[in-house]
Design brief:
Layout: H1 10-22, H2 36-39, H3 52-65, E1 76-83, H4 84-91, E2 101-102, E3 108-112, H5 115-122, E4 132-138, E5 142-146, H6 152-155, E6 164-169, E7 172-173, E8 183-184, E9 186-195, E10 200-207, E11 209-213
Length: about 210
Amino acid sequence: EIPKPAVHSKKERYLIKRCKKIAPKIYPIEIKVLNEQSLMSNPMDKVVSWMFSDWLSFVTESINKTMQFINCGIVNTQVFYIPEDFFGAFCCRIPAGYQEQKTAMGSIFYSIMNVNHVKEIFDTPKVKLRIAKKFILADHKGYIEYDDNESVEERGNHTQYHSAFIFFLNVGQSTVDESDNCNNAFIVEWLPNICSTIHVGQLKVQYKYGRKSI
């Protein structure tokens, strides 16, 4: 005798229908294990690169951006993580008269005491290191940057101002700085093996700005 299909009540049919909606649908997936050759097959990997000169231009522009009124008299610190090869190329730009010094943490550093040497180290064809700026006190705007080489049209209404001062990179023996007349070094510190597998270290630069009324 052929068994008759089970007869469900209206409530049971509703529960069965609802459970079918809730139950997730499972689809087969394919997992590919990429080898090293597959990872390097992207043609863009051969096109995109960052040369040492590009990186140094980035560092120089980063330093230039800190030359602001609020940073006067304080120690400005910037940290960069770079390949050891970049640091080797960077050291070649430091004049031979500066001796490498070591810290207890295992890092090495250079104390640059001449602002012209600092400029030689960081100047690139794309970006030049700014070692001085002129600021003026303009009505309703506070202190703003002022360029003597600009035309009257470019200056706008800032041809007349109440006071002005020179804002400069304070390196070496300073006799004109009104806020700090100490010997200030431009410090370059290198801590190797931050990422030892890929030979990346930490480059830190520290410096101060000074000012003089004119």
